[in-house]
Amino acid sequence: MGQRSLRVVHEMLKYEEVLRNEYRYLAESRASIREFLENIYNQKRLHTALGYLSPVEFEAQLAALNMVTFAARQLAV
Hints:
By secondary structure, this protein is mainly α.
């Protein structure tokens, strides 16, 4: 991940998660940030590197493409 990409993720995390919550303990903040990254950023947020798809949508398209490719190869045999 390039420095610009990392900066974008850091800014997004700061404004969409950290500044919207109050944490009592460091462990609470770590758990909340981890949950945000795993459940929102990595699953739902659109990513430019994936053609403006969420990772879930991208993986579904990739799986469908792989199934079509596999079926075409089976027919060619």
